[in-house]
């Protein structure tokens, strides 16, 4: 009989799942993507400012996976025939905003963790003599710690506060002292279970990364990442249901019943299998009646809220020769990072100068509770202070808020996830940033794995 599969959540994880399901299931299988908002893509949303393409969410993806091979995002780009649209940032350095100046970002670190602490110059002083060989690996088998805990113990506070924290702030809007090493830096977590010093562990992780020096680290798509969303949705051939949240999930004799839409006018839909590709809180709500242990294991994940302010400064506004900069939390600014869009990407240089400013960190939600005009003024003023001189007022701007946008994986996340997955009935799989990592490649791979799991369960 013709099968039906529901993918709940139309972000990149859900779309990658739908596409893989199309490849794995018989052609008459009906795949339905349920997205509660009015548009697919989730955190992938391409916008525009003063005629220039500017991402309103994610900007680029890693080209290489943790295994040194092409990342799942690049493989998806190829699968969709978009490889000719692949673009890379220009080779312009990035900086750290430290004590009133923009210092070049030290090269050769692993998310800010250096192999050679003496090479950090005046960016950060390492605590001398702490990274000693105590005769055993840094971490026991199965042990996970916060990135900050490990690096503070071995290299001292300054390396964390001035280098690792801003780097992790750039990716997670989170703090090194709260984020799991296993999730944020899996290669380092692996080598830390073998090596006796942090510098040896970083060197081993870098050697294992398979990265070819000189190859671009990041990729994006000409025209923006919404192209990836549109192409994945079209190629998957799934039926797309927009605008109705899935409110409840229940078991039936042969599969699953979805309850959709507003409380006064509910609709139901019966399917044979479900891929759940939504954030942690809605996942936990939907899982509670059908897999309570899984709901409990995933429901506690915290999120950071961030806001992006894009500014179109007048043509010719001078900016430092940088792609942008990161700001350590200790600076106390609301601005945590800035991207000089027209310099970093191949955009017209004689038009408006576009800067995308990122505001907010984990635990600082209340600092974003201002209207758009106030946030824009704050972003513009702090940007001027951080680059060392006042800027002309922007000719145009927008604000994009991502409330609860970035998961904060605490140490032990992978164990909790294993508990959740073990508690799932067959035919129900989890995908996306709530579970398997924040980056686009991780979300794509996670969606594809979930599709493989449910199609196996259906074939059994
Ligand atoms: C500002 C910002 C910048 C980023 N920059 C980068 C970057 O440069 N590179 C990178 O690799 N990553 C970046 N990320 C992270 C990355 O974009 C995300 O982790 C990833 O896109 C998440 O994909 P997802 O499909 O798991 O979840 P989402 O994109 O969150 O999609 C989940 C979808 O589920 C829907 N949904 C929720 N509940 C329900 C329900 N009950 N019923 C139906 N639908 C529901 C939501 O509306 C949403 O569309 C960034 C994130 C943010 C916020």
Overall shape: globular
Rg, nearest Å: 22 Å
CATH class assignment of the domain at 4-44 and 70-84 and 222-301 and 409-459: Alpha Beta
- Write down the CATH topology of the domain at 4-44 and 70-84 and 222-301 and 409-459: FAD/NAD(P)-binding domain
Number of strands: 20
> Architecture of the domain at 4-44 and 70-84 and 222-301 and 409-459, according to CATH?
3-Layer(bba) Sandwich
| Biggest pleated-sheet summary | 7 strands, mixed
CATH-defined superfamily of the domain at 4-44 and 70-84 and 222-301 and 409-459 = FAD/NAD(P)-binding domain
Report what the structure shows:
Pathway: Porphyrin-containing compound metabolism; protoheme biosynthesis. Its EC number is 1.3.3.15. This is Coproporphyrinogen III oxidase. Helix 1 (12-24) runs parallel beside helix 15, helix 2 crosses helix 15 (440-459) and helix 6 packs across helix 7. The chain has 15 helices and 20 strands. It is of the alpha/beta class and 460 residues long. Among the domains are: 4-44 and 70-84 and 222-301 and 409-459, FAD/NAD(P)-binding domain (3-Layer(bba) Sandwich), CATH 3.50.50; 105-207, protoporphyrinogen ix oxidase, domain 3 (Orthogonal Bundle), CATH 1.10.3110.10. It has helices spanning 12-24, 72-79, 147-155, 157-172, 181-184, 186-192, 198-208, 226-236, 280-287, 292-299, 341-344, 372-387, 413-422, 433-436, 440-459, and strands spanning 4-8, 30-35, 46-49, 52-55, 61-62, 86-87, 94-98, 101-104, 218-221, 239-242, 246-251, 256-260, 267-271, 273-276, 302-313, 324-326, 335-340, 353-359, 396-408, 428-430. It is globular and about 65 Å long. The protein is 32% helix and 23% strand. A 7-stranded mixed β-sheet has the order 8-7-16-17-18-15-19. The chain has a 5-stranded parallel β-sheet with strand order 10-2-1-14-20, with helices on one face. A 3-stranded antiparallel β-sheet has the order 5-9-6, with helices on one face. It binds flavin-adenine dinucleotide (FAD). Flavin-adenine dinucleotide binds at residues 8-14, 34-37, 42-44, 57-61, 245-246, 277-279, 282, 306, 308, 402, 405-406, 432-433, 438-440, 443.
């Amino acid at each position: 009989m013709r099968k039906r599969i529901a993918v709940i959540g139309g972000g990149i994880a859900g779309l990658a799942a739908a596409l893989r399901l199309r490849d794995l299931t018989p052609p008459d299988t009906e795949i339905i993507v349920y997205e509660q908002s009015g548009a697919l893509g989730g955190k992938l949303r391409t916008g525009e400012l003063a005629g220039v393409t500017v991402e309103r969410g994610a900007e680029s993806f890693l080209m290489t996976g943790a295994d040194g091979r092409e990342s799942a995002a690049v493989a998806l780009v190829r699968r969709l025939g978009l490889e000719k649209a692949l673009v890379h940032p220009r080779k312009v350095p990035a900086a750290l905003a430290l004590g009133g100046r923009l210092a070049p970002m030290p090269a050769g670190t692993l998310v800010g963790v250096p192999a050679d602490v003496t090479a950090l110059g005046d960016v950060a002083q390492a605590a001398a003599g702490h990274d000693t060989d105590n005769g055993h690996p840094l971490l026991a088998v199965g042990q996970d710690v916060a990135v900050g805990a490990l690096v503070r113990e071995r290299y001292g506070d300054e390396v964390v506060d001035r280098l690792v924290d801003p780097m992790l702030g750039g990716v997670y809007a989170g703090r090194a002292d709260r984020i799991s090493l296993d999730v944020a830096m899996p290669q380092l977590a692996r080598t830390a279970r073998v090596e006796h010093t942090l510098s040896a562990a970083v060197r081993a992780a870098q050697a294992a990364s398979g990265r070819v020096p000189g190859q671009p680290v990041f990729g994006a798509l000409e025209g923006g990442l919404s192209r990836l969303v549109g192409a994945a949705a079209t190629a998957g051939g799934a039926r797309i249901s927009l605008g109705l949240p899935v409110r409840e999930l229940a078991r039936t004799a042969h599969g699953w019943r979805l309850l959709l839409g507003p409380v006064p006018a509910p609709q139901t839909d019966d399917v044979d299998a479900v891929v759940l590709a939504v954030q942690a809180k809605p996942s936990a709500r939907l899982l509670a009646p059908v897999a309570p242990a899984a709901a409990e294991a995933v429901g506690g994940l915290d999120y950071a809220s961030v806001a992006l302010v894009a500014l179109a400064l007048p043509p010719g506004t001078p900016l430092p020769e940088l792609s942008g900069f990161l700001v350590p939390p200790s600076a106390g600014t609301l601005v945590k990072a800035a991207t000089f869009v027209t310099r970093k990407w191949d955009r017209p240089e004689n038009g408006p100068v576009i800067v995308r400013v990122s505001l907010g960190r984990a635990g600082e939600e209340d600092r974003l509770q201002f209207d758009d005009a106030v946030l824009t003024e704050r972003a513009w003023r702090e940007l001027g202070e951080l680059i060392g001189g006042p800027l002309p007022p922007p000719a145009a701007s927008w604000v994009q808020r991502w409330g609860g946008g970035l998961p904060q994986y605490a140490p032990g996340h992978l164990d909790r996830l294993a508990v959740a997955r073990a508690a799932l009935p067959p035919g129900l799989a989890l995908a996306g940033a709530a579970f398997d990592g924040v980056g686009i490649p991780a979300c794509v791979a996670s969606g594809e794995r979930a599709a493989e799991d449910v199609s196996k369960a259906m074939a059994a």
